Amino acid sequence: MPERLTGDAWSRALRDFQRSAWRWETQGVYREPEEQEPFRQFLAGHEPDLSFMHGWWATVEANVQAGKRYGRIRVLTEPLTDYLRFELSFTQQNVDAGEDIRVMTLDRARELGLPDEDFWLLDDELAAVMHFDENGFRYADAVTEPQEVERFREIRDRAWQDAIPFREYLASR
User: Less Cβ crowding at N or C end of the chain, within 10 Å?
Assistant: First the structure.
């Protein structure tokens, strides 16, 4: 049974990797408690308070300055869910912090046979398969068996070559 990453162990995994962190992000809605008020503000037409992201952006900037790499693909529904519109409204700040973010439509992901499960691939050695419920992220299963991790690397490689860089996506909208 894989190790479950929660709390401090989860935070350390996302902070202390050595070379690269890559995320496959497939949910049309995330229900993270710290996002609920900013999301409500966004839906009401107000500028959302993005202070919940400040720690993440600072971590990314520090890690990128230390030579680490971040990549992410956001799978987008068509039409976009309200949550994805909210998330895309501040994605440029993730890019500015140092993440290489690309997007792909859900239809294209399905055509390519890509999974519906979210995961992080850390240093190409650990796949952290994320689990959610109605209250947001619960835990990640740490997959370290080399053949299983190779499957996640193949998913990343197949998706990456087909995804659209965020800046191109933004320019096309």
Answer: N
Tell me the angle at which helices 54-65 and 7-15 cross, rounded to the nearest 10 degrees. Answer: 40
Q: What is the pLDDT of residues 16-60, one digit of tens each?
A: 899 999 999 999 999 999 999 999 999 999 999 999 999 999 999
Domains in the chain with CATH codes: 3-172 (3.30.870.10)
User: Which residues are CB-contacts of 1 (< 8 A; sequence separation ≥ 6)?
Assistant: none
Residue 78, both tokens: 């068509």
**Residue 22 carries which DSSP code?**
E
- pTM > 0.90: yes
Taking Cα atoms as reference points, which of 115, 139, 103 lies closest to residue 11? Answer: 139
**Rg of the chain, C-alpha, whole Å:** 16
Of the CA atoms within 13 Å of residue 47, those in its CB half-sphere come to 1
Would you state the structure tokens that stand for residue 77, as one six-digit string? 């529904």
pLDDT digits (tens, 9 = 90+) for 123-148: 999 999 999 999 999 999 999 999 99
